[in-house]
């Protein structure tokens, strides 16, 4: 849903010659005459597909006019910005209008006058006295601004204050020549979970921002993305290796013993008091009452009295990126299922996690296939024919994938054919429900599992003519769920079908809580419990709201959300298997997902089972994972609390052990800018 949200709401763009910081607020300065009438065009590339662009025009008086728009997966922003900057590159006057990714109207402004900054956006409003330059970070999506921020920070000596809050540093990491132009890579550190990298030319103007999923490049130069991505992968790998070397704690040869813990018995869904768990060689060597299980001579002993020991948590819906590994481990997530990614990026992450070159969880791979079209998801693999679908399946099956995922634009007639082919190769089958089908059709065609609670509920509201490639796949549930009679025959018949087919549900409730309940100017409910701990750009992004909910929509969407929660309870009551997943911020959103299950009336012990042994059983990994027993993988989470009594205590992670290697949660969080 909001994949990598913290990099989707980009900062403001401006230009000007870099200078050293002054002790007073910046004053306007005319741009060089040579820039008058200057115009630039950037392409926005989603994977290998042109999905939009940004036009930057500089007027004779130095003002920049920037127009950006892009569309992917049936949605995207459209913004117009006018910016005036000081000589040091910091904006002093700004106005942004347009709409965000989900169609919410934008009207953002900044003015700096007389040493005082005043701003207003859909995320917040305020004012602040300035004694030194500061770079305003708008809440609106404006991708060209990464370069402007870097240029201003470099001109300020490498470090620059941000508005509304925070600080960023610019670190030069690499240089290369692209299409005859010498460019340098700068890492912007401190504002986001991970360094935000930008490529600047020798005049410190933006050249490119690259990512395997989404890039900004000079017009017509989409071919440069892969080469720059490879350089950035190497830069991040060095940082990851250094973090692993500092924070990964391998026990001594005699092993590690966690003594006196209250252990969660995932089989029985209950606590076992005063147990000792012995770890040796990445496996659990022994687990049982402390009166019977003793630490080996020479073993490292962790006194866990008063704390709870859980099996490592599972997140069954992720899309791994650079920040995910540390965030997952710090949050107690030791196994994830990646539900769609760039295959090369994913293979590299998995290799480094498994080899001890980066901090990260175990990973199960699911590969996606999409149909072509204007409203389609940009995808590595498209299947408009059976042959294309089988080619994608062959790739996934030979590269260690365990699941095959359909997306919105696949032709309905291909679903049963490719589902059977996937099953023949031993792959599970799941996905969104393609346009032209209902969830019941997909289940009958071979789905083992459905992703997202909206895709499940659309069966009760949509027709086969509803264009579920658009925002209607969200708004229809918001408009209709409040009036749904959960005891009605259509609901009961539908539940019976899902139960008969043993359909697994991956609801990603947390993503839809954000869409239906987040309001501009307020902390998103999905992250409210930890928002003060987050880096400044991340925290601010979670104040921009979800779906447009003006007028009567506010109350309607809130009522519909309560019915969505009740429907989740019905799914559980009907005996359906539910697997917790996030599709968003790693770690933190899984904690909230589990809290939402409890709010839906599912007993806390059952929720913990779903996030451990239940998920392992769905993925046929329960012989080696999911519970605390001798012979199983040493994937464990030590928590300072009682999540069966209070589900929110699952957030109180102290120590995480993955494959026998221990990590201090607070220290790992620090590597991604999260405060204790």
Account of the 3D structure:
The protein is an alpha+beta fold. Among the domains are: 241 residues, no CATH class; 152 residues, no CATH class. Helix content is 27%, strand content 28%. The protein has 16 helices and 30 strands. A nine-stranded antiparallel beta sheet has the order 8-7-6-5-4-3-2-1-15, with no helix packed on it. Strands 16, 17, 18, 19, 20, 28, 29 and 30 form an eight-stranded mixed beta sheet that branches. A six-stranded mixed beta sheet has the order 9-10-11-12-13-14. The longest helix has 23 residues. It is globular. The chain starts with 38 loop residues before the first strand and ends in a 5-residue tail after the last helix. The N terminus is likely disordered.
Helix fraction bin: 25-40%
Neighbour order of strands in the largest sheet: 8-7-6-5-4-3-2-1-15
Anisotropy-based shape: globular
Category by helix and strand content: alpha+beta
Percent range for β-strand residues? 25-35%
Number of strands: 30
DSSP summary: helix tally: 16
Can you tell me the residue ranges where pLDDT is under 50 for at least 5 consecutive residues?
1-36
Radius of gyration: 25 Å
> Sheet with the most strands?
9 strands, antiparallel
Q: What is the first-to-last residue Cα distance? A: 27 Å
Overall pLDDT: 92
């Amino acid at each position: 849903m909001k994949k990598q949200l913290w990099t989707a709401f980009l900062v403001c763009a401006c230009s000007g010659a870099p200078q050293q910081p002054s002790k007073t607020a910046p004053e306007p300065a005319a741009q060089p005459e040579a820039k008058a009438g200057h115009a630039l065009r950037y392409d926005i590339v989603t994977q290998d597909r042109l999905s939009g662009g940004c036009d930057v025009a500089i007027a004779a008086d130095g003002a920049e006019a920037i127009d950006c728009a892009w569309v992917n997966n049936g949605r995207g922003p459209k913004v117009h910005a006018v910016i005036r900057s000081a000589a040091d590159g910091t904006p002093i006057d700004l106005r942004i209008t347009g709409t965000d990714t989900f169609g919410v109207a934008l009207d953002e402004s900044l003015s700096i006058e007389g040493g005082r900054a005043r701003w207003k956006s859909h995320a917040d409003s305020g004012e602040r006295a300035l004694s030194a330059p500061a770079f305003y970070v708008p809440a609106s999506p404006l991708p060209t601004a990464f370069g402007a921020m870097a240029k201003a920070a470099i001109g300020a000596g490498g470090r620059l204050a941000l508005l509304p809050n925070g600080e960023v540093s610019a670190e030069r990491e690499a240089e290369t020549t692209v299409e005859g132009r010498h460019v340098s890579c700068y890492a912007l550190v401190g504002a986001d979970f991970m360094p935000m990298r930008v490529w600047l030319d020798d005049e410190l103007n933006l050249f490119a921002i690259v990512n395997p999923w989404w890039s900004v490049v000079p017009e017509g130069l989409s071919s440069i993305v892969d080469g720059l991505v490879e350089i950035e992968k190497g830069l991040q790998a060095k940082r990851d290796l250094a973090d692993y070397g500092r924070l990964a704690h391998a026990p001594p040869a005699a092993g590690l013993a966690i003594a006196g813990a209250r252990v969660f018995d995932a089989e029985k869904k209950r606590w076992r008091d005063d147990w000792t768990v012995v770890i040796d060689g990445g496996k659990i060597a022994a687990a049982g009452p402390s009166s019977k299980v003793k630490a080996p001579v020479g073993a490292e002993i962790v006194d866990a009295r008063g704390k709870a020991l859980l099996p490592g948590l599972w997140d069954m819906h992720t899309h791994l990126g650079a920040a995910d590994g540390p965030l997952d481990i710090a949050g107690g997530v030791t196994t994830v299922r990646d539900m769609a990614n760039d295959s090369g990026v994913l293979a590299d992450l998995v290799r480094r996690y498994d080899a001890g070159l980066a901090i990260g969880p175990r990973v199960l791979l699911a590969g996606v296939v999409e149909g072509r079209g204007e409203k389609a998801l940009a995808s590595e693999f498209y299947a408009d024919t059976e042959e294309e679908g089988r080619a994608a399946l062959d790739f996934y099956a030979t590269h260690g994938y365990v699941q095959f995922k359909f997306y919105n634009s696949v032709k309905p007639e291909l679903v049963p054919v490719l589902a059977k082919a996937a099953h023949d190769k031993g792959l599970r089958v799941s996905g969104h429900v393609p346009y032209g089908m209902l969830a019941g059709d997909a289940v009958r065609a071979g789905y083992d599992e459905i992703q997202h609670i909206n895709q499940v509920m659309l069966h009760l509201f949509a027709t086969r003519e509803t264009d579920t490639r658009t925002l209607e796949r969200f708004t229809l549930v918001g408009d209709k769920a409040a009036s749904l009679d959960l005891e009605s025959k259509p609901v009961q018949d539908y539940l019976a079908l899902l139960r008969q087919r043993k359909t697994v549900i991956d609801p990603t409730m947390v993503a839809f809580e954000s869409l239906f309940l987040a309001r501009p100017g307020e902390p998103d409910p999905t992250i409210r419990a930890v928002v003060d701990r987050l880096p400044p750009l991340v925290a601010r992004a979670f104040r921009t709201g979800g779906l447009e909910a003006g007028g009567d929509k506010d109350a309607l969407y809130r009522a519909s959300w309560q019915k969505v929660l009740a429907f989740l309870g019905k799914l559980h009551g009907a005996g359906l298997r539910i697997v917790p997943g996030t599709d968003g911020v790693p770690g933190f959103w899984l904690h909230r997902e589990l809290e939402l299950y409890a709010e839906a009336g599912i007993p806390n012990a059952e929720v913990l089972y779903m996030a451990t042994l239940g998920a392992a059983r769905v993925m046929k990994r329960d012989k080696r994972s999911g519970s605390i027993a001798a012979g199983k993988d040493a994937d464990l989470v030590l928590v300072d609390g009682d999540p069966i009594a209070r589900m929110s205590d699952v957030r109180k992670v102290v120590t995480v052990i993955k494959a026998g290697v221990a990590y201090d949660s607070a220290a790992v969080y620090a590597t991604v800018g999260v405060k204790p």
